[in-house]
## 1
Amino acid sequence: MPTVVGITIVPSVTNVNTCWHTIVGMRRSSEQTKAVILAAAREQFARSGFERATIRAIAADANIDPSMVMRYFGNKDQLFAAAADFDLELPDMSGVARDQLGATLVEHFMNRWERDEVLIVLLRASATNAEAAQRMRAMFASQLLPVIADINPDEPQRRAALIATQTLGLALCRYVLQLPPVVAMPRDEAVAWLGPTVQRYLDAP
C-alpha cells in the first residue's frame, strides 16, 4: 500500500467499487452491456415503478457504474423507453374463424398483460410520462395496425384505435386501477363481454 511522508494512503471503498464496476462493464461488448442494463432496468421498473426506480439501483443490479448507464441511454426517460420496447406477440389470425377474431384478440391481450409486468408499468407511466406514452403509441401503431389491416383493409387505423380503447381500457381497469368487479371477473367472462365489441370494430362498415 503506498505511503506519502509516512502516511498510509487507504483507497476509498467507493472508488474501488466504482472502478471495478467500470472494468466489469468494459469487459463486455457494448451490445452485451446494453442488454444487461436493459434486463436490470426491466426488473427495476416492474418492481418499483417508473418514479421510484433509479439509475443507481439499475446500475447496481447490472453490476456496472451508473455513468455507463447514462453513457448508453442518456437519462431515465430514455432508458425506460428502451426497456419498454416490447413485442405484443400478436398471433397469426389467418387460421381463426372470422366470428372468433374479436374474442381471440381480447384473450391474447389478457395473456400478454399478465405475462409481463413491465407492460403494466408502461401503461401506468404513459399517463404522465411523454416517453412512455410515445412508446405505447408506437407499439400499437407498428404491431396492431398491420394485423387489423390484414383482417379488414377498410379504415384499419380507425379500427385499430378503437380496438386499442378496449384492450388498454381493460388493462387499466383490471391491472392498474384494479376495479373490484373487473378484477374479480374470470377471464372467459371478460372475453365474452369484450370479444363481441372488438368483433364489431373489425366488421362494422
## 2
Amino acid sequence: MQRASDGDRAAFEELYRRHRGRIYGLVWRLAGGDAALAEDLLQEAFVRAWQKLESFRGDSRFGTWLHRLSANVALTDRRIRVRRVQRETPLEGAVERSVAGAPDVSAPQQMDLEDAIAALPERARTVLVLYDIEGYTHAEIAGLTGMAVGSSKAQLHRARRLVREGLEK
C-alpha cells in the first residue's frame, strides 16, 4: 500500500490483482448482474482509488477502504443513470425499467439466487447486497445511499420477500 501511495504502479497493480475479485462481485451485484456495467464500475473504482491513495489514512484496512470507495462509485453511477432516464423520453423495454428501479417483467420463470437478486428493484437490490452480502449496517447503508435507516430496513424486508417469491416461481 505504501509503495503504491508513493506512485509505484507495479505495487498498485498488485493491489488490483489482490482485490479485483471482491470488488467485481460487489459492483456486479449492485449493477444487477450487468457484466459490462460491472467492468466499467470496477475500472472506475480502481481509477478513483489510484487518484485518492493519498487520502487513505490507514484507520482501516486498505480492502475495507477500497470496498467503501467502490460502493460509492457504483451508487453514484446509479444516481446519474436514474436522473438521465428520468430526463429522457421513456422507451419501451426492460433496460429502461431496470435503470429506473422497476423489476423486469420479462424475467424467466425459473431463477437462481443471482437472477432473483438481479431482478430486484434498484433500491431493494442495493440494500440487500450491502446488508446481507457485504455486511454493512443499516446506518452505513443510509450514509452511502442517502436514505433513512428506516427506509433501508423496509427495503431489505421488501428485497428478501421478492427474492423468496422469485425463487418459488
## 3
Amino acid sequence: MNPKLLLGTSNPGKIEEFKNLLEDIPYELRTLNEESCTIDVVEDGKTFMENATIKAMQYAKATKLPCLSDDSGIEVDALNGRPGIYSARYGGPGLNDQARVNLILQEMENIPFEKRQARFKSAIVIAWPDGQILSAESTIEGVINYKPRGKNGFGYDPIFYLPELDKTSAEINSEDKNKISHRGKAIEKIIPLLLNI
C-alpha cells in the first residue's frame, strides 16, 4: 500500500493539475477535504516560498501526513511586480478569477505590447510532520494579452500570452501545459528529491 501525500490546497484547478503532474509517483494523493482538514492557514510570508512553507508545515502537523503545498502567482512588470504573492486575493475578497483578470486588464489598458512582460512563479514545498522539508521553484516568462483567450486552466491563464507558442496559457491543452508551466517545472524538480527519501 502506498503512503499518503496530502495536497495542501482547496483550489479545484490546482488539485486537478497536481493529480495530473503526480500521477506516476508511488503515493496515494489525498485532498484536504478527504482528510477532513479545515484549518485556516494565514499566509503571511513575504515570498512565494515562505507562503508555500507555511501552508505545507501547518497542514502536515494538522493531519500527521506529508503535505505538498505551492504558492504561485503572476508578477507584471508594468504594475511594479503586482499582484505577486497577492495574486489569488488581488482586488479584495469579493473578486473571482474573471474579475481579477478584468482588473489587471483595466490597470494595463494603455500599456503597449512591448511593455507588458510578466511571469508566473511557483514555489513548491513538501513538509513532513517532523519538520523535514523539500522545496523547489520555477518561473515561466510571458506577456499580458489585451483580452482573455482560451478556456483551459484557471486564474490568470487566459491573459498570460506565450509569444513563442502564439497562445495564452488557457489555449494550451493540459498535457502540453504541464510540460512548460511554472508549476509543472517546479514539480519536475521536486519529484526526484521526494523519490530519493
## 4
Amino acid sequence: MDEILKTEHLNKYFHEPDTFQVLTDISLSVNSREFVALVGKSGSGKSTLLYLLSTLDTSYEGKISINNMQVTGLRQNALAKFRNDNIGFVFQFHFLLPEFTALENVMMPALKQGKYRRNEIEERAMDKLRQMQMEPFAHKPSSKLSGGQQQRVAIARALINDPAIVMADEPTGNLDTANSEIVFEIFKDIVHNKGRTIIMVTHDMDFAHRADRVLELVDGKLIR
C-alpha cells in the first residue's frame, strides 16, 4: 500500500499557564485505504495529535507530510486550500448549521472549493447522502434530525470533496450503541470499498479494536 501520511519527530508544547510538553517525538506513518484508531486516556494527547495531523494546529516541532506533500511550513491560505481538497472532518459534535437543510450542509465544502458547478455539487451531495441512507431527509432542516442522523449528514459533508483522508474525533461519543454501529459500518465501507483512509480518535476500545490498526498514546508518547 502507498503511504499517505507521515510524521517525523513531532513535539508539541502548551505554554499556559506553564510550559508543558503534550506530545513527545511522535513518528508514524499511515497507508492509503487504512482504518486507524488513535486511543489513550483523557489527557494523553490523542486529540492534540489529530489536530496536528489534520493541519488545524500548526504550532509544533517536526514534520508532517500528507498525500506526498510536506504540509509543515505552508502558509495559511495554501494550507486551507490543501485541507479542503484532501481532508474530511468528522467531530463528536456534528457542527451542522441548524437553519440549513441536510443537503445544503453537505454542499458547503464543495461550494467553497469551487471545482464544480452548483447543480453538479447538488448531485454529488445527494449521492453522498444516499450512501449514508439519508436521501429521504435531504431537504429537512438539520436541526430537525436526530443525533444519529445529524452525524451521518456530517460524514456525508466530510466526503463531498472526495478527500484522501477522513479525520474523526470521537465520532460516536454522543451516539447510542445502535447509531455507533451504523457509523462503524459506514467507516468500514469508506475505507474498504471507497478507498479512503480514516484516522479516528476514540475512547471506545471495542470500536477501536475493530479498526485495521490501533495506535496508543500514553502521556504524549506513542507506545504502539
